[in-house]
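Hey all, sorry for the wall of text incoming. These are the three entities for the joint prediction.
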Amino acid sequence: MSPLLHVEALRIAAGPHAPALVDGISLELDRGKALGLVGESGAGKTLACLALLRLLPEGLHIRDGRIRLDGQELTALTDTEMRRLRGGRIGMVLQNPLSSLNPLMRIGDQIGEAFAVHRGVRGRTALWKLAVEALRAVRIPTPEQRVSAYAHQFSGGMRQRVAIAMNIACAPDLLIADEPTTALDATIRLQVLRLLGDIRRERRMALILVTHDLPMVARFCDDVAVMYAGRIVERGPVEAIFANPAHPYTRGLIGATPRLDGRRRLATIAGQPPSPGSIATGCAFAPRCDVADAGCRQGRMDLLDLGEQRAAACRKPFARPPAEAAA
Amino acid sequence: MSARIHIEAVSKTYPVRTSLFSRRRELAALRGVSLQIEAGTTLGLVGESGSGKSTLARLVMGAENADAGTISIDGRDVRAGLPRAADAWLWRTLQPVLQDPYGALNPRMTVAETVGEPLHIQRQGSRAEIAARVRELLELVGLSAALATSLPVALSGGQRQRVAIARALSISPRVLILDEPVSALDMSVQAQVINLLQDLQDRLGLTYLLISHDLAVVAHLSTHIAVLYLGQVVEAGDRNAVIRTPRHPYTRSLIAAAEPGGEVEAIQGEMPSPLAPPSGCPFHPRCPQAVSECHSTPPALRRISGTHLAACHLADSAQETAA
Amino acid sequence: MAPDGLTVATPVVSNQPPPRRRRVRLPSRRGLALWAGVTLLAIIVLASVLAPLLSPYAPNTIALRATLQPPSMLHWFGTDQLGRDVLTRTLYGGRVSLTIAASTVVLAGLGGMFMGIAAAYLGGIFDMAVMRLAEVQYALPAVILAILLVGVFGSGTANVVLVLTLTNWPRFARVIRAEAQSLSQRDFVLLARMAGASRLRIILRHIAPNLRSTFFVLLTLDIGLIVTLEATLSFLGLGVQPPTPSWGGMIADGRGYLDRAWWTAILPGSVLMLTVLASNLIGDALATTAGTERAE
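and here's what came out:
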């Protein structure tokens, strides 16, 4: 069976000669599966997601690559066709739920809009009825009353639920959630992530969770893709990668995550992420890598198949620095 | 070099107007908070937005005054608007490191000017001595001396936060107030700053008051933890006691939210508005274990063992559920 | 393969901030406007300053045999009703008008900046007093207030500067006050206070330097406005007194001959218009730059 989403060698840049901000990433995602897209700011995670919706910021373009959703080539669609897809077959939830909602529209009208646009439903009564169902699906208490409220009357967690309701209203095949819980408090974050997990299982919807929170990925995703400097440096099943990361950057990120157990020293990755265009040749991570050698600074590092559905863009997968290997 | 911080029954209320036409209401940000921080230790203050943790930080910094209760460092009162000499003593004792590394630096001042400013203000040394001290500080926080003449625009978030820490350390304070010091930083940089803060404490014997919404960061850096909910301490104690044998259901839910494998039932609902705190135990509307007593009687913060305190009617029976 | 250079011209969703760090530099229309403005203003200023060298005529030499001559090779802007060369008078008028404008914006700017910072930082009664005064001046049209004040002080170049300064400082004060207030809420000001910095130090080191770009934006935007106000006063006979040429005065004089000798009013008026345009182009470009700077 072919995957629901198939991204191949996607490249995003400002112009033909500008440095690529997303540099040839490839992804596959099946129905009902959740992919965690992990990376630091500037790694290109958000751009990659906006490209799937063809909503790149002005001046940036898809320069190369293919995006197929259920066999349909998205890069070849007209703007009108693409608009029909957005909010219909692909939904997107953003970090800040307050700015995703129109402050002057009642929640019911706002959710109803999705049904009016994508399903051709007419009339406020009909739309609100559907909106109530959508609110019920995201477990908002007393949806019949809340449907007539405005965004400012909701708390942060409830707003994010409303944003999710809007985006799953038309039963999309794919939901992209870009840092959906970063602005929320810890206990609320857990509630929202559980909600997303439940919805995806119930509806066999594919989910891309963009985040910098590794424990969340470990807990809520099937697969993970780690991005660094516009490229995917490692991808594969969550358990395998967290148990034994192949790429030194993945290993570094896992070691750098503070945990509840103990005041041990965190492993760190030296230096800062590079800016686009500053990468000369070779592996972009080589200057910060603790196992890199001269060979890592030459050529171009592509994802290598490691078997067991895993791949890493590293010449020395699973290598550990000498000190650590001895210990 | 002892710097013992004593927070005694501190309350703070802000008048707020929810809309132009509604009457003024009282927002109780802190309701009788008592905490102690021993010299050379780190107290991690954890809570959700609206729990009052930032208010407490501002009070300890002397940026505002409490309505009731006292805050003292080594027996000396901390208050805003003290006579100048007492103020100067406070500034030399305590310095803050804030969350936003972009807002904390004056965009028109170079790194050296920013780091050296407190020394200039406090007239500690000649120009040359201050310049030497600035170089020393930059090295201490792991910044290249070449950055001394840079403006903040040229620095990354992590570098800015290091500059902010170097500045805070310039007049050799004994206490740092760390208000979400790493939450604006990227993952790899966050670990660098956490390690730096730990090293600095070991080397300089600093006392930390750490405020964070991220329990993992708090658990990592703190020797003691206090959990704030709706302006009250619901659980406090040494790190291991609070993390390993939490007695308050709210603490347990925070741990569940932070621990990848944790399977404690997620608590329902959200923190009520501090404008209308619930009766009885502030946590009862969300508590999976609440009994009728919780609706009516606010639980007192009582001793569980040693320094471990919890404010829960069911704290004694809670042990089994936690284990 | 997707065609190379495939463009995706879809509008950006408004609630999605573009990735900050990787802002893409597009060929900037703003830069073009800035340079157009600077060039235009430089030409006008230089020509005015160098008027005695550029022009073979004196501004006030009357030649009754050559009155109201249309533009020609001898007189590029023609001559006025007294046979004086209009271009020469326009350039000399520019010296007066631009000197008045420059002095006024500097005086009003510095005064307004001082009052604005003081109001923001001292607050209380002083803030109230300054802002209410500013509001009163706002409510009265500047021209009316200026006419009133000329009545009190009398006309003449120095008095025009004084009057225009008195009517224009509130605009500076209001903007600077708002900006200073928002700056004083920034973390670095709190940190300076926590390091024991005095009020004066905070104003001089932390507030004022960060007001610089706002100040220059206001300054350039104001030049156009002041030039117009000065011309209005002179047009009404309340500003610069004849025979000293000024743009407003020349337009007033030429008004009576519009049907026979349009150049006497239209050409000095065009130079006035170009000056205002240049000032606005520069000011707008600087404002955009300052806005981007602040956002970072």
